[in-house]
What does this fold into?
Amino acid sequence: MIEQAAEQPSELRFRKIEPRDLDDVLEIEQEAFPEPWTRGMFCQEISSAMSHFFVALVDDVLVGYVGFWQVADEAHITSVTVRKEYRGRGYGRALTNFIVQAAAREGLTRATLEVRVTNTVAQNLYKSLGFEKTGIRKSYYKKTNEDAIIMARKLDACVYEPEHAKS
Ligand SMILES: CC(C)(COP(=O)(O)OP(=O)(O)OC[C@H]1O[C@@H](n2cnc3c(N)ncnc32)[C@H](O)[C@@H]1OP(=O)(O)O)[C@@H](O)C(=O)NCCC(=O)NCCS
It folds into this structure.
């Protein structure tokens, strides 16, 4: 099913990740992260009942992907990634907004994520969307021995009511 979230560039469309997406996703993943996920890890996102994982498309180009794990009443955001040549155009914001809305639609009350201490671009993005720093995980990223900042925000179910349902 194709979905479109509020507050996103109009040409951006989302659908659940499928096996046919894996080559594109792996290409983006490998250029985006020093410790990229493997094909097997993405396959698990497709098959796991706790995972909600989506690709973002502009026309037929896969420009990014985003996902969360549902753990009790929390959404643990596992990835927000935009293809390099599509960054700086509002897609990262749109992906994050989309996943926050998707988690809220599931009735989840809080979203958390980890971000590298050096990744100020992503930290700026998350801060601007209401995420706050809640802690540090020391040496979370093994290859670079880098710490992770834990960020979290509450999810507000009311935001996702259709326009006509608002008073
Ligand atoms: C982080 C990432 C998803 C942002 O995607 P993007 O499409 O470039 O982001 P947007 O264009 O929507 O910008 C959103 C916000 O990010 C921040 N940002 C974007 N580019 C930035 C830059 N070059 N410098 C500083 N902040 C920047 C700003 O806060 C920006 O908001 P603004 O435009 O109102 O200033 C993208 O850089 C990416 O895929 N990086 C590699 C993977 C990654 O690190 N993911 C996050 C893991 S936790």
